[in-house]
Design goal:
three-stranded antiparallel β-sheet; Jelly Rolls; AhpD-like; 378 residues; six-stranded antiparallel β-sheet
Length: 378
């Protein structure tokens, strides 16, 4: 929780090596706590799809600009509009697209910013398959900071998307199977808690023949690496999608059922771990906390890997996608790059996976896989 604290002026001056004469202002800094400003859902007459706005700071009389986080679910976008004094847009998550009346189309990503000058008709939003959040700094002129116009049609939206496609060559994605593309995308969105994008990815996977039980198993596989909350939320999303599709009259393949849990999961898991790593696993960390390796061997590589439906190669591809979609997992990601190659996955396939997830989720995910490949190849 944010809080304001005060220390004496004398103490501040002593630290800064200044005298009292150096301060000649009564102005004070102002803290705007997280979520202290208004939030609202984007109204239907100004947005297409699901959009949420969280104001970060308000405009002031002598500082005529405000800031807000705006989150667009897959396929969502603004109506046409302009800003009398312009606007900066900085992507904080995902990929954004913006287009102007004169045909300029820009696709921009996490950490990239776009300046829209004053009086330029434009729209901006998410791509069809994943959500996007950007931080906007909007200036005002007089009492106006935006002038709304008609909604963007589906034809205009898809024409802008088509204009960006020449920047992406998707042919080389065929180096990994369509099944892997769908499963890893589902796992990546689930690991990053992007449930809106996960719903889209699940529908696409089912439309292309991925079975319900393959998707279930991919999301069960998430829990040893990402935790129960991520796994349970993702499984709930899958259940909701399956129920909706059934109500719409769609028939999706259920697929094979999982195996029963092994009677001696510790022995089996130790064998699987040794095979994946290429040698028995030991080291200072497991000397310090040996039960951690026991849990890995007995439960992860024993119980979870023994469930079937997905083989060891499938599971390592999923693990790479999951770990790359979470922060603070670089050592584990490097280890699983090696384990994936020990199952027969090639470095080229992993590089293609990096490109694929970097384009379909966020550039950060792809870059983390690429960096892990480079680190393990040295």
């Amino acid at each position: 929780m944010s809080k304001e604290v005060r220390i004496s002026t004398a103490a501040l001056l002593a630290v800064a090596g200044l005298s009292g004469e150096a301060i000649a202002t009564e102005k004070q800094q102002v803290l705007y706590g997280s979520s202290s400003q208004p939030s609202f859902v984007g109204p239907d007459d100004k947005f297409t799809g699901d959009v949420s706005v969280q104001m970060a700071f308000p405009g002031q009389d002598d500082v005529p600009y405000s800031g807000a986080y705006v989150t667009f679910e897959p396929g969502a976008r603004t109506a046409w509009h302009d800003h009398p004094a312009g606007q900066h847009m900085i992507v904080t998550k995902g990929t954004a697209i913006t287009a102007t009346r004169d045909g300029q189309v820009i696709e921009f990503h996490e950490g990239e910013a776009v300046w829209c000058p004053e009086d330029v008709d434009h729209w901006h939003g998410a791509t069809p398959n994943s959500s996007m959040t950007h931080f906007v700094v909007t200036a005002s002129k007089g009492d106006e900071n935006v002038r709304w116009k008609e909604k963007v049609t589906d034809e205009q939206y898809h024409a802008a998307l088509a204009a960006t496609q020449h920047h992406h060559s998707h042919a080389h994605y065929d180096a990994i199977s369509e099944r892997y593309q769908h499963l890893t995308l589902v796992a990546a969105f689930a690991a990053s808690d992007d449930l809106g994008s996960l719903k889209v990815a699940i529908n696409q996977a089912l439309d292309h023949g991925t079975t319900i039980n393959e998707l279930k198993e991919a999301l069960v596989h998430l829990y040893p690496y990402g935790g129960f909350p991520k796994s349970l939320n993702a499984l709930g999303t899958l259940m909701s999608v399956v129920d909706t599709r059934k109500a719409e009259g769609k028939t999706d393949a259920v697929g094979d059922e999982p195996n029963e849990l092994p009677e001696d999961s510790l022995t089996l898991g130790t064998e699987v771990q040794t095979e994946l790593v290429g040698q028995p696993v030991a080291g200072p960390l497991f000397d310090f906390a040996p039960v951690a390796n026991t849990f890995l061997q007995k439960h992860l590589f024993g119980d979870v890997f023994a469930r079937g439906i997905l083989n060891n190669q499938d599971r390592e591809m999923l693990t790479v996608a999951i770990l790359a979609s979470m922060s603070g997992t670089d050592p584990q990601l490097r280890s699983h790059i090696n384990m994936a190659m020990n199952t027969g996955i090639t470095q080229q396939e992993l590089s293609v996976l990096a490109d694929y997830l970097g384009h379909t989720t966020t550039r950060t995910v792809g870059q983390r896989i690429a960096d892990a490949i480079e680190a393990t190849s040295k």
